[in-house]
Structure formats: structure tokens, C-alpha cells
Amino acid sequence: MKHTAQWEKEFADRFEARFDELKWLYCEVYNNDMQAFYWLTGAMYEYYQKRGKALKKLDRERERTPFWYSTNDLVGMMLYVDNFADNLKGVKEKIDYIKESGVNYLHLMPLLKSPKDRSDGGYAVADFRRVQPELGTMKDLEALTAECHRNEISVCLDFVMNHTSEDHAWAKAARAGDEDARKRYFFFDSWDVPFEFERTVPQVFPTTAPGNFTQLENGDIVMTTFYPYQWDLNYGNCVVFNDMVCNMLSLCNRGIDIIRLDAVPYIWKELGTNCRNLPTVHKLVRMMRIISEIVCPSVLLLGEVVMEPSKVAPYFGTKEKPECHMLYNVTTMASTWHTVATKDVRLLERQMQQLADLPKDYVFLNYLRCHDDIGWGLDYDYLSGFGMNEVPHKRFLNDYFTGKFEGSPSRGELYNDDESLGDARLCGTTASLCGIETALASGDKKALKTTVDCDTMLHAYMLTQSGIPVIYSGDEIAQLNDEGYHNDPDKKADSRYLHRGKLDWKKAEKRHDKKSVEGTVYQTLLTLEAIRREHKVFTASADVSVIDTANTHVLGIKREYQDEKLYAFFNFSAEEQPAYFDGILSGVDLISGEKIRGLSEIMKPYGFLWLLCDDTK
Q: How far is CA 40 from CA 27, 36, 169, 261, in A?
């Protein structure tokens, strides 16, 4: 039975407004288990009561402005705590640098307790209520989020919900034979059912972690979609859902503003399916959205959905029944690097128009690089029309970005290289993939200018897109690859550590020197961020369309909002290229402040232009 009469009015009002749908969804997924449902609702009230005054005040403010995150003044940065400043206290001490960099959305990469030698970069969580000891404590996390809030910085944290580490208390109990604990995972005493799953479920890491199951020392078989030490949770068990929701709410009460739902498409498993994007996944995410709106309405859900566009958009839900507040713009990121290699913008034009056709309240996080590899999940049906067939094209891209292709300045490394499929994923920092590392090593000043221009052009393009631009820590100073991981026994098998190096603070000191590579990139980013904040045409509510520049090397984007009209152009070629401004008579270059007249412009190699139009036909 409901206990709204004993609850505080604020919570009771939110709960009553959403009760029917939450109950209906829960009962549908969990077979009308009302005892479990009311246990969950009671826990929700407990977490509401534990929520601090400052966070409740923030809840009320954001309830009044529910789309606060869709403005043009948010700039994100994602970082590993240890790589950035050793520990949480160190990050707190570096708040001034974060603010100086124009950042007001801080994504802390996984920092919860995980086994050092089997952590998957923090994505194998052994305890959802403890911080990795060398990074600090939960009190340190609370102190950091409070300081961020005082400086108007929102904080994002990963919530690894598909699996736990095999070192988690639940997994240890399951391994010891506890039947209730075993029901939290997928245990089998023979290979019969696992083999049936393997018929339809793709492998995530076919070379480094083949298959979807692992046999334990005692003969038991457990589902492990990702790595053998990451045991998949069974969300068909209501106890798992209830406890994981509580783990999420506990993090929210530590001051986390954005919960990143890691690997969310994988969380529901059904025999005979691919165990990806199943309908029940959306019911679970919808329940998590409702629960957060009741307990902590200032908190946003960010879905990590690394899928093709048709599979991504449904995670926004509908206007009446929304799910995630934000999603990653994964496909555009991969297509951007494809365009760097091919110098051909046609695929990017197609995808930009597809995004422009989506509802404006769909907020994407846009990025060039992140902690993970780059997978080439491109639109090969479209590309094949230009002779770019999947297997040979993937091979070309990987050859280009590892510097094997003649004339390529890129320096990357491959991850999960599967020669039998001709497939692999790519690792490397933005600067090294743009060629800055090669140019510095050669001492070629002209090449260095060209590659730096490539780097800044890509960031300008990222900042032009609707949504929230997110910089990967180190990219703001053009940090290069970290080859040192090859010498670390805990890291050398995982080439993703190539772009997970420690921030070089000595190089960061050069950020004010415009003659240095670090200063050129850093100061250019600051300029672009300031312009973006100043002009409402960059808001997510703007109308966006693709411009035909009559040049397959030059991407053109038009943004319109109220009385502002922006034409943005990006030359993806290392050569000068003409760009035609269809219908434009005059405008102001927002970067230089110069007036531009005419119907065309010769763009420098890897040049870009933000043209604020003041006169049209």
C-alpha cells in the first residue's frame, strides 16, 4: 500500500503524479510483485530524506527550468581522476583550471572500487558505495561535487549497470554457492543454454574476450558479455533492479548531476535474441527516469548507446514517456574521422541532415575523442554507392590512422584487431590522429601548422553541432599519445591506454603562449567557446540544415535562431578549397571580425569559417 500520508508533501506530490505509470511498468516487468514494488518505493523515500538541503534546492531550481542542459553555454570535459590530478582532492584543487578552460560540465571517468588487475578502466565495479582507495573516499567525492556546484559546474559519473566485477560481494557469494546471490547473475551448470545464446548473441570483443560466457574453476558457467571478470547482472530479478536503483540514488545523493548509464542496451537478456536493445530495456530506463524525477529531479540520465542512429534515438523515449535526457553522438564522431581520412564530406552531410531532422529536444553529447576506441560502424549501404565497401574501407581507415597509408601523418594503434573479419578499432589522441605528433617529430613547421589547423577545425566543427560539446582531457592542449603504457604489465595488453595518459601539466603551462602548439589550440578553443556562449544561434533550439558548398571537401552547415543566421564551413582537405555561399551576400566572420561579401570564399587547408549573415537575397 502507498504511504503518501506519512511522506513529506514535496515527495508525495511527485510520487502521486507518476505512481500509476511506475506501478504499471514494474508489475509488467516483474510479474505483479507488489511486495518488491513497495520495498522500492519505500527505499526511494529514504533516499529522498537523505538528500542534502543544497541538492534539494537544486532539484527545485531545475524543476522550474527542465531543459537547462539544452542551452548554448555548456561545455564539457571528461577526465580520469588519477590522470588529471592524482586523486579527488587534486581535482578539487584544479577547479580554477577547469573553469579557465570554459568547462562547466565535468565527467569523471569510473572511480568506484575495482580490482587493479581486472578493472577494465574502472568498468568492473567491486563496490558501488566505495571510491577506489588511491583516488579518495566518498567524502572526497562529495566535497568535490559541492565545490563544483559552488562554481556552477555540473558533475557526471559513470554508472556501470550491466555487470559487476567478479570481486563484488554478490559475485563472491554466488561463487560460494549462495542461491539468492546466484540469481543475481546468469549461472548455468552445463553449456546447453549458453550455446543456444551464442547462436544469436554477437561477441563484443571477439579477439581479446571471445564468447559471451566464462566457465569458472568449479565448472559453473556464468554470462560475461564483456570480459570474463565482468559478470552480467540479471535484471529479470527484481532484487537486482531494486538494489541497482539504490546504488544509483546513493551516487546522486553524493552530488552527481548526470548519471551515465554504461552499456545500457545490453541490460536485458532473452534467449533467441541478440540481447541488444530489447523492448524491456526501454521499460527499465523509463522506470529509472521516473524514479529520478521523484527522488532527485535535478539529475539527468545520459545513455551510452554505441549503435547505429536507428537504434540510438529510441533511448530518448517519447515526449509523453521520456527515457534518457541525453545520448552520445557516436555515429557522427566516427563519421568525422572517416571524413578526415577520405577528405570527402558526403557521409557527414547525410548524417548532419539526419540529426537536424530529429526533434530539437533530443540533446546529444558531441565529442571527437573519449576514453574508448573508435569503431567504424558507418553507413556502408550509403558509402558503397561511392565505391567504399565495408571490409576494404575499414582496412583503409585503420591503415590511414596508423600511418601505414602513404602520405598519412596520423599515429594511432589498433584495438581488437580481427584479421579474419578485416575489422579493428582505433586508438589515439585527437592531436596524434590529426598528425601533430608526426609533424613535431619531423620538425616540419609547415606540416605542424597544417596538422594544428586540422585539430582546431575539428573542434570548431564539434562546437557547431547542436547539443553539448565535450572535450577529452588533454585535447585542450593537443596532448600526444602516451607510448609508456607498453611498459606497464597491467596496461600493455589494452591499446586504449594509448590515449589514457596522464595530463602533462608542464605542457599545460604553455597554454597562454600562442606561439606554442599547446597555446594555439587552447586559446583557439577559448575563443570558440566564448563566441558560442555569446550567440543564441548555437542553442539546441536552432533550426539546422546542411548547405551544398559545391565541393565534396567542404562541409557547410546553416543554423538559424530568432534573428540570427550562421553559416559554418569546414575544409576537410589539406589543400586550399573554394566554398560557395548559396544565397549569401554579406556577413561577419565571428573569428576575425572581418566583413565578408560575395558568393564564394577560398578556404585555407583545414580552414573553417563561422559567418554570421547580415544580408541575404
A: 12, 6, 21, 20
